[in-house]
Amino acid sequence: MKKIKSIIFVGLITGIVILLIALVVVGASLGKIVKVGIETVAPRITQTPVTVSSVDLSILSGSAGVNGLVVGNPTGYQSANAISMDKAAVSIAPGSLLSDKILVKSIVVQAPQITFEGNPFGANNLSQILANVKGAPTTNSTTTGQTAAGGAKPAKKLEVDDFLIAGAKVHVQLTGIINKSLDLTLPDIHLTDLGKGNDGITAGELTQDVLQEVISATIKSVGEAASSITNVTGKTLNGTVDKIKSGLGGIFGK
Question: Which one, out of 12, 64, 184, 188, has a CA that is 20 to 30 A from the CA of 29?
Answer without folding.
Answer: 12
